[in-house]
Amino acid sequence: MTLLSAETFIRRLDDEVLYQRGFDSATVIIKPDSNRRFVINPVASTAWELADGQRTIGEIVTVIRATYEGTPETVLQDLIEWASNMAAQKLLTISQSPII
Q1: What are phi and psi of 20, to 5 degrees?
Q2: pTM for the structure as a whole
Q3: C-beta of residue 27 within 8 angstroms of C-beta of residue 20
Q4: Band of the pLDDT at 44, cuts 50, 70, 90?
């Protein structure tokens, strides 16, 4: 797997999943081909919405820190770990350049 950093671009795989953000800001992601369901917290929900392939992890960290508490280093490490896990589940794609 590619090593992720603040300069890594991430994109949610909209064509592979169904998702709905709930009233409590958590998001439910369903992967129909495997009938798996993932529930992500409000911070991860924000990252999911921003993962459009045109933003880097570092840019997403900046947006998240404007709304949620956490040091830049902690938020970056948490987002890298989350993105890595989501990519392993084939819910996100990652790249070192913008993703179309």
Answers
A1: -145, 125
A2: 0.90
A3: yes
A4: very high
Q: End-to-end CA distance of the chain, in Å? A: 20
The candidate with the shortest Cα–Cα distance to 74, out of 83, 65, 66, is 65
| φ and ψ at residue 65, rounded to 5 degrees | -65, -20
Residue 21: per-residue pLDDT: 78
Question: What's the CA gap between 24 and 26, in Å, rounded?
Answer: 6
Structure token pair of residue 31: 């992967």
Q: Which tokens sit at 93?
A: 């794609």
Cβ-defined contacts of 32-37 (< 8 Å, 24+)? 36/89
Paired residues of 11 in beta bridges: 52, 93
CB 16 within 8 A of CB 91: yes
30 CB contacts (<8 Å, ≥6 apart)? 17, 18, 19, 36, 37, 38
Question: Does the pLDDT of residue 1 top 60, yes or no?
Answer: no
